[in-house]
Amino acid sequence: MKKFINKVDDMLAESLAGFAAAHADLVSLHLDPNYLTRKLKAHNKVAIISGGGSGHEPLHAGYIGYGMLDAACPGHVFTSPSPDQMLAAAQAVQADKGILFIVKNYAGDVMNFEMAAEMLPFENAKVLVTDDCAVINSTYTTGRRGVAGTVIVEKCVGSLAETGASLQACKALGDKVNARTASIGAALTSCTVPAAGRPTFDLSENDIEMGVGIHGEPGRRRITLRSADELVEEMVEAILSDFNLRSINSQTEALLLINGFGGTPLMELYLIYNIAAKLFKSKDVNIVRSLVGNYVTALDMAGASITLCMLDDEIKQHWDAPVHTAGLRWGL
Amino acid sequence: MKKFINKVDDMLAESLAGFAAAHADLVSLHLDPNYLTRKLKAHNKVAIISGGGSGHEPLHAGYIGYGMLDAACPGHVFTSPSPDQMLAAAQAVQADKGILFIVKNYAGDVMNFEMAAEMLPFENAKVLVTDDCAVINSTYTTGRRGVAGTVIVEKCVGSLAETGASLQACKALGDKVNARTASIGAALTSCTVPAAGRPTFDLSENDIEMGVGIHGEPGRRRITLRSADELVEEMVEAILSDFNLRSINSQTEALLLINGFGGTPLMELYLIYNIAAKLFKSKDVNIVRSLVGNYVTALDMAGASITLCMLDDEIKQHWDAPVHTAGLRWGL
What is the mean pLDDT of residues A62-68? Predict the structure, then answer.
């Protein structure tokens, strides 16, 4: 295992310390239990909290700041944070309008966020992100997995919360964005979890895992290496079929996110964008917003995912609104 | 070779098309000769042009926009752009105050930019970036290589140019930033150039190339795999020694850039930041600005570089100024 690392057990704490030091203007780090909050506590708004296993950076701590999250709870690599982290984060950032948890649909995350929610003395609600259309049920999931679409949910809900909107309104927007978003990923290599020290799964030099999860969970099928045109066509078809199955009209304006898993260079991500945008346009999807880069990663996995979010005026307005976080920033 | 790619010969054109489509609000792409410009032509300012081989994305096209570059000339992967690209770009963006070329110090780039400069009917000047303190002279270089410090030069000069400053003033600032910046990289793996189809150099599972170049050029020495603490300490020492050799006082405010080479996840880059920032502080370097991410890459190489720029009031002011590009954005 070749990584910039000291002791495996210290990796998360050292990385969090580096993140907090590099972005000391934006975030504060609290240890034991581990959570990060905005540097300046917000007031009179719904507090938006997310979290999950580490290894998906910049998700979630990289999205703390004005216009997005109030706090994030990082678990160990690919491991759910514990209820005490979520409770402590909620106590720290609650701002008189309740707490909204944004939770990717993995069994451990859901269970622990629900335990925290039950113990919490404040009004709270949850948005469950389930954008991955690759498979139903998976290694760690009942139902669909939550993947790169999480960034879009966090961005839009975070924007609405800044306006002083109610907990119910924030939850409704999050649920709507999730319902209008579909993603699928493909892996060229496995990732290597530091504590395991070897690749999570075996993938030969000629194979690709189509529909892979962001922890290396199995996808739809293993296929032989093929051209980017063919790979992206299968991914775009999967997304469009998913919208059809869910009776969501895709003849509308859309946001296209090409997300790298951590080991794939930007040059390839833009090549994927080029193919995907043309294919979507040929199906009357009007791409009016774009995001290309490493936003929801899987450690060092070489691979990428395609996410399409069907916009409406409300979603577009909140996507465009100013945001100031380590991972996403515009208008400020 | 596992990449998201169709034909090797088409990779650059397809990737550029994707970049231009994803950022159609910011840039225009011109083909044959290949160059990219701002969407909205600037007026009455020094036009800032950079370029170089592709494979270092987001450098350079990702830094086109308000507060940074007016145009960029992408060569093929790890190959210099040609003088006709630079001439055409200069004709397209010249804005009555001359042209400043920002050139990383590689023999081919320097030769071709100089040929273009001689043929150009406008006043022009050049800033040569030579921030890599790993080696003097290298595979493609006489003198020091230009690496991640290029982003800092482009950002500061770009900001000054927006104020209507003269060509001489812009060149002077670029030269000053370069003189106050030092970088060194380390590779955990080679990169794979698409046209070659195999790794550029061999590196065993237990070896690290200390001082590697951004095209996989040899570094100072090959060392065995060791802890991040030990690796980063060697890199920080190299940078501090370089400032001592150049008689630059490092007891001052500084910008610390931890740059990923394309295949290294953010979690590791923040771990490196944590170590480097502490070491610099122990040597009385006061880190007041930070940047962590993939800014000057080497295709899919796993590895990272550390860059330190000694700030003064002028450099800090221009670093902080608003910028709106695909790769760097704040204040707008």
Answer: 98
What are the residue ranges of CATH 3.40.50.10440 in chain B?
12-179
- B152 three-class SS: helix
Rounded to whole angstroms, the Cα distance separating B287 from A297 reads: 28
Are B331 and A330 within 8 A, CB to CB? Answer: no
- Look at the block and give the residue holding tokens 């209008």: A180
pTM, rounded to two decimals: 0.97
CA A23 to chain centre: 20
Name the β-bridge partners of A54.
Answer: A77
A283-310 average pLDDT score: 97
Two structure tokens written together for A302: 């070489």
pLDDT band at B250 (very low <50, low <70, confident <90, very high): low
Domain topology for A181-318 = Hypothetical Protein Tm841; Chain: A;domain 3 (3.30.1180)
Residues of chain A contacting residue B329, judged by C-beta atoms under 8 Å apart: 329-330
Minimum distance, in Å, between the CA of residue A301 and any CA atom of chain B:
9
Task: State the average pLDDT for chain B.
Answer: 96
Q: Which residues contact B63 (CB under 8 A, 6 or more apart)?
A: B50, B69, B72, B151, B154, B155, B158, B325, B326, B327, B328
Give SS3 for B92: helix
Distance spanning both ends of chain B, measured CA to CA: 40
Q: Are the beta carbons of B270 and A300 separated by less than 8 Å?
A: no
DSSP string, B13-39: HHHHHHHHHHTTTTEEEETTTTEEEES
pLDDT by residue (tens digit) across A225-252? 999 999 999 999 999 999 988 877 766 8
Residues forming CATH 3.30.1180.20 domain(s) in chain A: 181-318
- Residue of B15, B277, B330 lying closest to A270 (CB–CB): B15
| A265 vs B231, B256, B300: nearest CB | B300
Q: Cβ separation of B275 and A14 shorter than 8 Å?
A: yes
Report the C-alpha gap between B269 and A103 in whole angstroms. 26
Q: What is the pLDDT of residues B216-241, one digit of tens each?
A: 999 999 999 999 999 999 999 999 99
User: What CATH fold (topology level) applies to the domain A12-179?
Assistant: Rossmann fold (3.40.50)
Cβ separation A225–B2 shorter than 8 A:
yes
Query: Catalytic residue positions of B?
Result: 56, 215
The overall longest dimension of chain A from CA atoms, in Å, is 55
Token couple for A160: 């609405």
Mean pLDDT over residues A66-94, rounded?
A: 98
